């Protein structure tokens, strides 16, 4: 009799515990779907780009192309994400747009540096490249690099708002009043053509592409140092801090892809190739090395 009574009480208590546990589990929040999980399920992902050739731009018929979008498309396809949709964004709004969820990856050839690393995560770099200046045909002001602007206070230098060139100009001693910040490549070209700026600064590949497509302008010889420091920039893909699984999966495929015959064949028509492969890691670049 005593034993039966104990057994019944144990059964009642066990049932109560199971009910409580079930209630507690039901009240827990469901697993939040990650960006990577959503993209794999839906079969597509959105990337932000700034219409800066040859890094990331839209063709006249609306096709998303450029070094960063093409590499992204190849890497994402290997991850099982077949469709990549581009979201055109001014360069200075790419990081805010990513953090606000307007798109899920920055595919704009964005240089990796400590300031940006504090805001977002980066893939390993996909290229490394130096700088050049866009000047009027014949280079009438004799511009060679940032020091040319610093040494002549009458000269104006156009840079793209939010890009690294504004910082390079300041490092070189160019006065703030000589710097004209503009939203995109076409604005830089127009400023030089109209004489509102005596030069425009961007990466050597961008300047070469702009000079090839526009009338009345040309590129200076590329250079790799400003104020005694290397300005060989390394560009990569940007991710939100919380999207670590997406970043890690992307990196795993990117490391295998970079330098492969498939990669070189993809980017050579855009002006990239073996000479533009990166020689620094993201850890080094985020540390300012």
UniProtKB/TrEMBL annotation:
The gene is ehuB. Coiled coil: none annotated. Pfam families: SBP_bac_3. Residues 1-32 form the signal peptide. Keywords: Signal. InterPro entries: Ectoine_EhuB, Solute-binding_3/MltF_N, TAT_signal. This is Ectoine/hydroxyectoine ABC transporter substrate-binding protein EhuB. It comes from Mesorhizobium mediterraneum. SUPFAM superfamilies: Periplasmic binding protein-like II (SSF53850). It comes from the Bacteria. GO terms for biological process: ectoine transmembrane transport. One of its GO terms (molecular function) is ectoine binding. Residues 44-274 form the Solute-binding protein family 3/N-terminal domain. PROSITE patterns: TAT.
